[in-house]
Amino acid sequence: MKTVSDMSLRLLRAPRGSRPSRPPSCDPSDAFRPGTSGAAFRSAPYFRMMPTTTTAPAPPPTTASDAASAEVSRPSARDPWFDNAKFALVALVVVGHSLVLTPGTTAHGWVYTFLYSWHVPAFVLVTGYLSRSFAYTPKRLWTLVCTVAVPYVVFSELLVLFRNTVGHEGLSTSLLDPKWPMWYLTALFAWRLVTPLFKAMPLLVAVGVAVAVSLVGGIVAPHTFDLARAAGLLPFFVVGLKLRREHLALLHRSSVRFAGLFALAVIFVAAPSVRLVSTEYLYYRSTYAEIGDPVVAGLLIRLGVIALGLVGAFAFLSLVPASRTWMTRLGAASLVVYLFHGFVIKAWTYLGVPDWADAHPGVSLLLMPVAAVGLATLLAQPVLAVRLNALVDPVGWLKQRLWPSMPEEPLAQSPIRPVPVQQVPTSGLLR
Fold first, then answer.
1. Residues 320, 80: contact at Cβ < 8 Å?
2. What's the rounded mean pLDDT across residues 262-285?
3. Is the pLDDT score of 202 beyond 50?
4. Contact between 381 and 87 (Cβ < 8 Å)
5. Where does residue 122 rank: exposed (0-12), middle (13-18), buried (19+ CB within 10 A)?
6. How far lies 16's CA from each of 4, 24, 240, 342, in Å?
7. Global pTM?
8. Which residue from 109, 201, 315, 410 puts its CA 20 to 30 A from 54's CA?
9. Three-state SS across the chain?
């Protein structure tokens, strides 16, 4: 393994004119500052000349918070497990929305309840883990606005326009009332803003506060910006926020994978029992009174639903492949899939797919999930996703067109995120 001294000797022996000029801002210690993206410091000319193994050892952390900061800021190669998980989860979102087009038979309710008991919690949990580096800095806040708030405004208006023009649904254009899948962007914005607060809390305190907020959210349920969902699903975000790499590494053990498979099987078998309570509890959006339950019963049911969601989320994540698969290169286009699939699902509705499904309930229950996965796979293809990204990330798209030489700011990571446009034409892979 090369050392820093070896590298310095190579630079001294390099022919005149071939040595890289090191800008004053490219201090090697910048690579180890908390909040600094590995891609950001490697984009500087000086660091592009350095092998990835030639890094000076960082000082050992002295506190638990220092260790957490070091883990978040440590440069690392892209983990295929996260890309696999992100694509699998966003594909399940499309599957869940496609099931709305099928008739409400007993089998439909069984599958629907099984899926919704854990797939959104798993989605939010991964969001929390990938939000650990968020901080109250101008760059991070600006990135949050560009990658979450701007797509929310653009696609909220586009989706309402499409549904009113093509489907004649007569929806209002108020941004205070997120339409259909847009709730996730407002929730993500709120979760990111409270991230530093929960990062500063001890684990048990943070999870306890998040559960308390979720329970209280079932009493007051603020519907503006659909913040009731943000409050209801907050425990999953905080659990993900408090996870570390060594915790996720446990999911790759064979014994844990077997336990996860068994847990999902139990949840599937028990899904009819979950339907004894209103499926509205699985959406985390309504008050207990709106559902028709007293407060005490609502609190207990929500606690049970949260526990079920955590078990199902970890069980599913334990089954996600840790190595590169066909899903790996599609994971970076998860935001494209999330924002565009609603137009296709609604188009299927207007074309009469629900009528066809009513006439063929068994076949439709089998074919719609297959069609939904196919739709997600199509939208995530690099050749298509890079073209759709102009609407998904208009600020980043304009930046690349107007200032192509400017290094791109690190994106606020989540299961849904814009496609890094500048990398697709050269490698064909989404990062």
1. no
2. 91
3. yes
4. no
5. buried
6. 21, 20, 51, 58
7. 0.77
8. 410
9. CCCHHHHHHHHHHCCCCCCCCCCCCCCHHHHHCCCCCHHHHHCCHHHHCCCCCCCCCCCCCCCHHHHHHHHHHCCCCCCHHHHHHHHHHHHHHHHHHHHHHCCCCHHHHHHHHHHHCCHHHHHHHHHHHCCCCCCCCHHHHHHHHHHHHHHHHHHHHHHHHHHHHCCCCCCCCCCCCCCHHHHHHHHHHHHHHHHHHHHCCCHHHHHHHHHHHHHHHHHHCCCHHHHHHHHHCHHHHHHHHHCCHHHHHHHHCHHHHHHHHHHHHHHHHHHHHHCCCCHHHHHCCCCHHHHCCCHHHHHHHHHHHHHHHHHHHHHHHHHCCCCCCCCHHHHHHHHHHHHHHHHHHHHHHHCCHHHHHHHCHHHHHHHHHHHHHHHHHHHCCHHHHHHHHHHHCHHHHHHHHHCCCCCCCCCCCCCCCCCCHHHHHHHCCCC
307-354 tens-digit pLDDT = 999 999 999 999 999 999 999 999 989 999 999 999 999 999 999 999
Q: Is the pLDDT of residue 13 over 50?
A: no
Q: Is the pLDDT of residue 156 over 50?
A: yes
Sequence ranges of the domains in the chain: 26-57, 80-427
Question: Would you tell me the crossing angle of helices 295-319 and 203-220 to the nearest 10 degrees?
Answer: 130
Q: CA 417 to CA 200: how far, in whole Å?
A: 25
Q: Which two tokens stand for residue 227?
A: 């913040």
Distance CA 126, CA 114 (A): 19
Average pLDDT over every residue of 145-166: 95
Q: What is the CA radius of gyration of the chain?
A: 23
Q: Please, are residues 160 and 171 in contact by the beta-carbon 8 Å criterion?
A: yes
Whole-angstrom distance, CA of residue 374 vs CA of residue 231: 32
Report d(CA 173, CA 409) in Å as an integer.
Answer: 31
